[in-house]
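thread: overnight batch results

M.L. [08:02]
morning all. the overnight job finished for the chain we discussed friday. pasting input first so we're all looking at the same thing
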Amino acid sequence: MRIWQRVTQRQITAMAQLDQLSRRGLYSLSLTQTDFPDGNYVLTVGPGPIQVLVPVQLADDVGGTGYYRSYSTQFRRYNSWLDLANNQRVWVQRYLTRWVAPLVDNLAPDSLTLGVITDTHAVTGVNKTYYGSNGWRHVQELNLLADTGLLDLKVHLGDMIDGSQAPAVSKQALAQIIQTLAQGPTPFMAVKGNHDDNDKYDEHYDQPASFSANTYANIVQRPLANQATLKSQGRLHYFDKGQLRLIFIDTCDVSYALDDRGQKRYDMKKVMAIRQQQFEDIIELLSASQDKTICFLGHADLAQPKGKGAVNYNGTTLQELFQAFNQHAKGRIQTKGRPADFTVQANFDFRHTGTAKIAAYICGHRHRERAYQLAGVQYIWLNCSALMGKHHALTTKYNRHWDRHQGDITEFAGYVLNFNQQTQKLLVFGYGAASRIQSFNL
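M.L. [08:03]
and the structure it wrote out:
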């Protein structure tokens, strides 16, 4: 019985032709007009089936890289090709390279440019229609944009993990995402989401809290603090370029308190807040932001279009502080009628901040896009990167409309945000399941 079969030269002009090669053997191929560089290749088809594609010139050590893919029994088709040099999906590299090229050529070099994803909800294990390891894959692919040199900063707006797995697994997934964001010379920022403390897991098990008080800080905050280009004010992080200032806040600022069974007093998945110390840090930083154009970024929206609070505690209070800053006012925050953990009392004086203003608040959390103005502050919601197939109960209407699928551009969603001080414009460019371009005044 012959296991291997040598096939003579074949001309391949479409990726679909490679899908038809499933019989074990060695194939000599000439590829043109595919996702790969034109040229001669050797394709090995092995048990599984798996395919390994190697350019002929690689054998002569004159450049090139190899490619690999396996077969999906769930979808009855091959999975995406992986570039063995960087472990990136070939079609995504090609898509993002084409998508980002006009931005590299046309965005002003003195403007501030971010690469942003949010709500990856990474879960260890494969899920081809919903949250899964694709969350980590999408973080890897954000690095492709950074590799172009376009970005000043990479940003993850929270819910890095789904927080639904055993603590050791969730810790590993969270660390893996941070390590991936830290790759390369471009600095990064990650804010805390309401799933990042693993409370979804705790909700289903009658046992002590799965994350300690310092778990998130040890995995995320320490690497953030080690970056020279990312500045801090107390527990706040901020990033400056010219007269533009980005301030990153924690909308999951909830005290870590345990009951007599070692379980959390507050389910951080359901309770979101901004507390006293963070308000003090925000006030101090704003007071030192003379003539700056400021944009805040966080995981959850602070207030709804009609002004109603969108986080459990102090979202509208912070929005009111934004308004006071834009009016260059002096005053005092004095909250009432809430638990002591969430009471805020703080003085502020913004009379000496020159032409400074808070222009926008940018967030994720809602798994959809939306934009509205609230008392002069532009709110911008970004869609979730995590795959949300239309047949899952928790999939939002927005993502049902996209009819998202694994293995095509709707699988992910990401953004490049460009802040231009000269034109006083914020441009939001989306890829994948995201609006292609939105424009806002700063």
